[in-house]
Amino acid sequence: MAKRKLLFITTGGTIASVKTKNGLVPLLTSKELLAQLPELGELCQPETLSLCSIDSTDITPDHWVMLANAIRENWTGYDGFIVCHGTDTMGYTAAALSYLIQGADKPIVLTGAQQPISGEITDAKKNLRDSVITAIDPASRGVMVVFGGKVIAGTRAKKNKTISYDAFASVNFPALAQVQGNKLVRYIPTPYPSAPLTFYRELSPKVFLLKLTPGMSPALLESIFAHYDCVIVESFGVGGIPKALMDGFAAGLGTYEKTGKVLVLTTQVTYEGSDVGIYEVGQRVHERFSFLEAHDMTIEAVYTKCMWLLAQNCRSFTELQQKFYQPINFDTFFQ
């Protein structure tokens, strides 16, 4: 059986960094990166593409669109894609690609490292090898993160450790698989896409993430709603908005059909999600204005899905609501 042809797309990050007098800087080219692990040629036919060479702190939505476009342009020539990426914003990039590339019947794997691949002690080689093991599996498809031996759906990956090699968790959803040596142990099958492959080319920048803090002033809200069309509120516990902020939100939102403004409620708590209706502080929100609720979604998925949704120019709140709650790449169980 012929080896699968994989395109390694490099963006920089720790995995491609070298030590300088100013700290770690991503300087390795894509070819230099793969040269550190020549045995990958025994598993696949690797080819490389250097998209950029930056710290993932500097990744922007423009880079997400660039990545999706690069994959689109090379789609027919490869059996799968591996994106080498910095860890700090990898969860956002994986979620964004899940919305920009839908109906994918090939694997799109994101990976990186906590230590540079050129270092004497590094997790980069294992993560790259595990990514290849995942990508060459015939049942692998769609966007996923492979890190620390775990295979995580692109909309469920969150970096929750800054130093440890097992830096990523699958939030509110089981890991899809585990890589054990040369074997992929699959827990959650990824169904073959029922819809045709679709690449989207636009994300709206008009999304703001607001983290509530005790005693926050409502004076902020007028400026936020003046500049953004979607405000995602990281509320306390299972969700709600303090009384002092209710009037400000009502004034900023209006009705979606008139203003095009939308509110999404989620929680600051990483696990188990939101349930706004449990407490009076949540129920009073239902009484004042329409909103979307993130439930079990990650912040990374909520943020990037809203950017994708706003770019779709939904004509009504009902249409927006239907698309928001439509599951994409395991991003939500709520329908």
Q: In summary, what is this structure?
A:
Helices cover 28% and strands 25% of the residues.
Keywords:
10 helices, alpha/beta, 8-stranded mixed beta sheet, 335 residues, 4-stranded parallel beta sheet, single chain
How does this structure look, described?
This protein has 335 residues and is α/β, with parallel strands linked by helices. It is built from 10 helices and 18 strands. The protein has helices at 30-35, 61-73, 90-100, 124-135, 219-227, 243-253, 256-259, 280-288, 299-310, 317-324; strands spanning 5-12, 17-20, 23-26, 45-54, 80-84, 101-102, 107-111, 142-147, 150-153, 157-159, 168-170, 177-180, 183-186, 198-199, 207-211, 230-235, 262-267, 292-293. The strands form 5 sheets. The chain has an 8-stranded mixed sheet, sandwiched between helices. The chain has a 4-stranded parallel sheet with strand order 15-16-17-18. A two-stranded antiparallel ribbon has the order 2-3. Helix 2 packs across helix 3 (90-100), helix 3 (90-100) packs parallel to helix 9 and helix 5 runs parallel beside helix 6 (243-253). It is globular and about 60 Å long. The mean pLDDT is 93.
